[in-house]
Amino acid sequence: MNGLPVPNALCLNAGDYGYGIFYQDEKSQRAFENGLSKVDDKLNKAVSLSQLITMMRDIAYPATRMPKLLQQMLSEQNENLINMVFIAMFSAKSLFIPNELAADFMKETATAFLTKAAHEQENASLQAFCLDKALNFIFDKDNLKSCATWILEDQVTIDGVKLNSKLTVDHKYAIIKSVYNSRDFSDDEKKKLHDKVFAEDTTDRASKV
Asked: Which of 57, 82, 134, 178 maximizes the CB count within 10 A of its CB?
């Protein structure tokens, strides 16, 4: 490794004798933000993501850049790996994102998950998984308007793609709550959505929402 001091010793860790936490330099961070999808080896990809998530938690990697990693997972089929990123981003929105940057972070994250969902027409389980994760970050006007249309039309459509996945009752309730907390919907629009959702659920639970 040119330019670096010669180490005093090397420890071959094939026998798992030790463990280290390693930080990536800025150049490596940018490389993964722009090319993580090109890493074919599953273990290398998981280790790289784990390093960046650890760095985020240690305030050594900006949480605002996490959506860039998610955008690199468009073709990723490993649900556990995607869930690892989701958990980190869910934690980031509560602990590491400044209030003035939260709206952009949430919208960027939601859009990335929605794009991933639209990409998974042949994988029903992963599509439903990504749609569910996206709804945890949808509070912006554009995405909320799309969600309202999904409810009214009984069809989830993303970037012109009609998804096979459907909104669950819990999804609809979560959307309704966000809509009612938004200033981007008129009272008439809120009532229209309310009537649509509650017309389809006559259980006792509906009266508690």
From this structure: 134
